[in-house]
Structures are given as C-alpha cells and as structure tokens.
From TrEMBL:
<dbReference type="Pfam" id="PF02931">
    <property type="entry name" value="Neur_chan_LBD"/>
</dbReference>
<feature type="domain" description="Neurotransmitter-gated ion-channel ligand-binding">
    <location>
        <begin position="3"/>
        <end position="189"/>
    </location>
</feature>
<dbReference type="InterPro" id="IPR006202">
    <property type="entry name" value="Neur_chan_lig-bd"/>
</dbReference>
<dbReference type="GO" id="GO:0016020">
    <property type="term" value="C:membrane"/>
</dbReference>
<dbReference type="InterPro" id="IPR006201">
    <property type="entry name" value="Neur_channel"/>
</dbReference>
<dbReference type="GO" id="GO:0004888">
    <property type="term" value="F:transmembrane signaling receptor activity"/>
</dbReference>
<dbReference type="GO" id="GO:0005230">
    <property type="term" value="F:extracellular ligand-gated monoatomic ion channel activity"/>
</dbReference>
<dbReference type="InterPro" id="IPR036734">
    <property type="entry name" value="Neur_chan_lig-bd_sf"/>
</dbReference>
<protein>
    <submittedName>
        <fullName>CHRNA1</fullName>
    </submittedName>
</protein>
Length: 215
C-alpha cells in the first residue's frame, strides 16, 4: 500500500483535468442524496437542505495493476491530493463558497475511477409567493456551478432518475412525496439539471430543482 501511495502521488498534477486528451470533456457521473429539508423561509426567501453528492469520474493517471501491488484494488486518499471539480452554489443565500468538505477523502479504484462524496448544508435563494396560501405552489432552483469550466470540458451524467432518499429524515412540516432526477444538456454553457419535488400535506407544494450551469 505504501508503494502504491508513493507511485500514485509522485508527479501527480491535481490542477489538470484527468484526461490524456484535453480536447475531450471529463464525464462526471452524479447522484444526489437528500438528508434533511431544514427550512423554507418565506420571509428571507431561502430554502435550506442538507445532502451530499456521489460523484465519479476517470483519472487516467491514477490507474494500476492490482497484481503488482499485492492485489490491492482501491485506495483512499485525501481530497487535496487529486483533481476534483470546483463546485459552488451560484444562488447561495449565504456566503458563496466551494463544496469541499474540509478533511474529506476520495476513493480511487485500480481502473482510475475516483469516487468523491461531498456533503453540505445548502442554503439558496427562492422567490416564494404566498398569496394563495395554503394552496400556493413554488419552484425553487439550487444552482450548482463548476466554476471556471465550460460544458466542453466537464459533462455531468445522472446515475438515477430520482434523487436518493435512503437517508432522508422526514420534516415535521413538510412531506417529501416524490422525487425526480433529470439530466438535460442545455445551450450557452449549461450542463445538467436535477429535479426533485417537495410537497406538504397542509401547506405548500413546491418543486425544487438542482441546476448545473457551466460557465
């Protein structure tokens, strides 16, 4: 394991996109897991959720033959040792910051597949109109930007057609009734969209969109 670690990290450049041919886009396979719906603040016009991404991509410089290293098929390294996409919430309701998770790790498989699962509390703006309360409906957009990259450099592909709710804890005011994850390539540098729907038994119904525009 020590020998594998030294060989993988020696001369590895974490600032370059992980592809031999830089004219090709880096494909990132994505899933989103919602953990809690914390708050919908109609006064501030913000929505607060916690969740995490399951992101996978290929890094051709991080491949090895397991039989050469005691049949080791994967290794865990600090996130700062490898390239990761610089994601941030463009329509943040708080200070704009990168989704990084200080101290997080990545798992690297011998095929060069990198697996990163950053999580965060996402507070983002939403125009909430309560004129028709308690029957009002809203659509809120969470904009995730791969800062500095165009859609010719990074492409997002969704693993599932739904947002994952395996670890979701129900909210006392809101009921999560259905989810939908939608991949959609747009023009003008916009990459992917995720959708999931949240409604309430006695208050609002709303759809919440995870939106991946690229610069």
């Amino acid at each position: 394991m020590r020998e594998l670690y030294n060989n993988l990290t020696n001369d590895h450049n974490k600032y370059l996109r992980p592809t031999d041919d830089q004219s090709l886009a880096t494909a990132i396979v994505t899933s989103f897991y919602i953990v809690t719906l914390q708050e919908i603040n109609d006064v501030k016009g913000t929505v607060s959720i916690t969740g995490y991404f399951d992101l996978k991509w290929k890094d051709v410089s991080l491949r090895w033959i397991p039989s050469s290293y005691g049949n080791i098929t994967s290794i865990v390294l600090p996130r700062d040792f490898v390239w990761t996409p610089p994601l941030l919430v463009a329509n943040s309701g708080e200070k704009i910051k990168y989704i990084r998770m200080k101290g997080s790790s990545v798992r690297i498989e011998h095929t060069g597949t990198v697996i990163w699962t950053p999580g965060s509390q996402f507070v983002f703006t939403c125009s909430i109109n309560s004129v028709n309360f308690p029957f009002d409906q809203h659509e809120c957009v969470l904009e995730i930007v791969a800062w500095g990259y165009s859609n010719s450099e990074i492409v997002f592909n969704s693993t599932f057609e739904e947002v994952m709710t395996s670890f979701y804890s129900s909210n006392s005011e809101w009921e999560l009734t259905k989810t939908k994850a939608l991949n959609h390539n747009l023009n003008d540098g916009v990459a992917e969209i995720f959708l999931f729907y949240i409604s309430s038994a006695d208050r609002y119904s709303m759809s919440l969109t995870l939106f991946f525009p690229l610069l």
